[in-house]
Please model this.
Amino acid sequence: MYFRKLVLALAGSALLSACATIVTGTTQTIKVDSNPQGARIFTAEKTTENGKPIYANRTEAGVTPGTVVIPRKDGAVLLEKDGYEPTEVPLNRRMAGWVWGDIVLLSLLSTSIDTSTGAAKEYDPREYLVEMKAINK
Model:
């Protein structure tokens, strides 16, 4: 009887694992605008090497004002416009609310899955306005 309850508890925990990954996914939609408008928007995965940013899988995603889908883990948004310096949007991340489900269920598996997929974090705010700096000629 004890073994049966233990198996059911473990199975239930596995089924409920990775709350944030299942509910919110590994990407997030955000709004991006710039001053001046009409800047090309790029999304990428950001890492650093020797203190310098490296942008992998860079993809054009539209023009400001616009809405983009970016990965929750190591996501970056870049803006480019002729006559202006290329600019990285300063994204802010915080712990996603669904991670509390992992904590309440005391599921180490859930927490590790959500952390590894990036679903444990979310971008906040979900709207960004970026002042672009003109290139002095």
